[in-house]
Amino acid sequence: MPKGKGPQGKRITLKVAKNSVRVAFNGRRRLDLSKMGIATFPKCILELADVEELDLSRNFLRKIPNIIEKFQNLMWLDLHSNQLDELPPEIGTLQNLTYLNLSNNKLTTKGLPEELTRLRSLRILNLGLNCLETLPTTLGTLRELVELGLFDNSLTIIPKSVKRLPKMERMNVKRNPLPEFAVEPERIDTIKRIESLYLVEKKDLCSSCLQTCQGERDELHRLEDMTPGSSEKPNFPSLVTPNSTAIDNQEEWRMK
After folding, report:
1. Which of 74, 153, 221, 234 lies at a C-alpha separation of 20 to 30 Å from 206?
2. Which tens digit of pLDDT belongs to each residue from 80-127?
3. CA distance 45 to 31
4. What is the separation of C-alpha 94 from the centre of its chain, rounded to a whole number of angstroms?
5. Are the CB atoms for 80 and 103 separated by under 8 Å?
6. Which stretches of sequence are listed as region Disordered (predicted)?
């Protein structure tokens, strides 16, 4: 058995990396090393640092080294489904980045560097399926964000600065313990309801049954006194459609 924890990973050579470069539909060159069994960031790909897209998803990466700053042409970076618990501050130097997928990792709030907010061109950010308990308010500076994935975390609040991002179109917050999405408990009807009514003459009842019926009659009269009369009809001047309600933030968004 090899020493050390976790998978040792596959070694990627420069030849393998060069053969993994593809031209995407948008004309960009993409280095696709997804599902390669990589556990350590391959330093040999620094020779291909001029690519516009880099896919390292579905591997066993535990760390992204600071040499990621060498990929200054990157516009698209996919790191989803690895074992990352933090990002290097140098990721903030990728000023051309418009797409960043970090979902399905082990990222914590402390693992998100403040330099992440320097990605001012970022339009799509996926942080779903991680271990986030809070969200940095500084993410509100990413004013170009159109899509934000926050699903399957432990978030109890979304900062106002993030909610108010001017270009935000889709925000997926499913399966977080957010109070605004909590299910209200079913209301309990405290009013006693009379389900059966039997009509008999007093002379046909024994004393105990008569006493019970009189008690039920008194209870019925008490309920009648609590019910508003027909002349006291409730007025709802602002109700557009009868028996309708409006729920804010009813629409749920799904990441593309």
Report:
1. 221
2. 999 999 999 999 999 999 999 999 999 999 999 999 999 999 999 999
3. 9
4. 25
5. yes
6. 225-256
